[in-house]
Amino acid sequence: MQRTETAAYYQRLQNRVAEYVENNLTASFGIRELADYTHVSYYHLAEIFRSTYTESLGHYITRIKLERAAMLSAYTPLNLSEIADATGFATKHSLSKAFTNHFGFSPGKAKASVIRTDSINAVMDGITSETQYRHIVQSDFPFTFKQRTLTGGVLAGYTWHFGHASPGYEASMPYLDDLLSMTIAGRARRCIKIFDSVNFTALRDYRLFYGIFAEDTSMLAPHFDGLALPIRRGTYLVFDVPAGHRDDIKHHITRFRESLVWYKQMFILRDFYDFFLLHDGPDNGGEYYLCTGA
Predict the structure, then answer these.
(1) Which of the ends of the chain has fewer CB neighbours closer than 10 A, N or C?
(2) How many angstroms separate the CA atoms of 193 and 291, rounded?
(3) How far apart are the C-alpha atoms of 33 and 42, rounded to whole Å?
(4) Contact 207, 162 (CB under 8 A)
């Protein structure tokens, strides 16, 4: 067996950690549960994570839950008790205290503003103030959408940690052939998922999920070692994203989410879960999926 202290091993371990956290956000868990899931000792897992990232594993778990709470507060009508239940906090008071300590403002403030200037959304869109952000979300634009019900499937792929860089979409994506080799050719679509919050996660911590959407989990190759995230079952708003440059595509997705849902409240979400399916070919647009509930 190869030495475990290798980059490939670390990446696989990080995939398992991210997979567990993503699939268990509503539960109360800690490092010991993650250690059991990854089959690595408590201390070894904590040390690997600390040496690879700029934060401890415990801080990472708390941060992900709080950023999720911020998204639920901003984009849904859930009250604080419901958000606490959805993010694994014992009470709304414990959530509120942890939230305020982390962000420097209360959960209620997240309902009034969903931008921080060190987030990836602000950095990549060149947003330097809340005034500039509000001008974007208040603007009118044409759009088309349909509704679709998904009853199963999986998002399979990998995450990339941006660090302090600010790459374009192309620079953050792997080679498509490697990803599509996981599946039977032609039966899956390329997928981008907002793994972390584009507005509440600082750029240094942000990870982009990129892979495929497969409606049949048997399509995954046996050797696949990335993340396999069960699709959220329910009814989705499916917005048509016109073809264009990668950055233009990202701007369209931002408008659907920020303007139509957060600011204009034309659509009401019971939870926040989304992903983007790309059409075949370069810069051919795609479909943006926003789950409205079961």
Answers:
(1) N
(2) 13
(3) 9
(4) yes
Sorted by sequence, the CB contacts under 8 Å of residue 135 that are 6+ apart come out as none
How many angstroms separate the CA atoms of 71 and 25, rounded? 13
Instruction: Map out the domains of the chain with their CATH numbers.
Output: 7-111 (1.10.10.60), 145-293 (3.20.80.10)
Q: Decide if pLDDT at 260 tops 90.
A: yes
Predicted confidence (pLDDT) at residue 183 exceeds the cutoff of 80? no
Asked whether the predicted pLDDT for residue 1 surpasses 70, the reply is: no
4-29: average pLDDT: 77
SS3 category, 227: strand
248-279 as b/e: b if 16+ CB within 10 A: ebbbbbbbbbbbbbbbeeeeebbbbbbbbbbe
Q: Which residue has the tokens 């959960």?
A: 107
In the chain, beta strands by DSSP E: 145-150, 154-161, 189-193, 207-214, 227-230, 234-241, 274-278, 286-293
Each residue's pLDDT tens digit, 61-103: 999 999 999 999 999 999 999 999 999 999 999 999 999 999 8
How do strand 154-161 and strand 227-230 relate by DSSP bridges?
antiparallel
pLDDT digits (tens, 9 = 90+) for 117-170: 888 888 877 788 888 888 888 989 899 999 999 998 888 887 777 665 544 444
DSSP assigned state of 158: E
Could you please report the per-residue DSSP string of 252-288? HHHIIIIIIIIIS--S--SS--EEEEEPSSTT--EEE
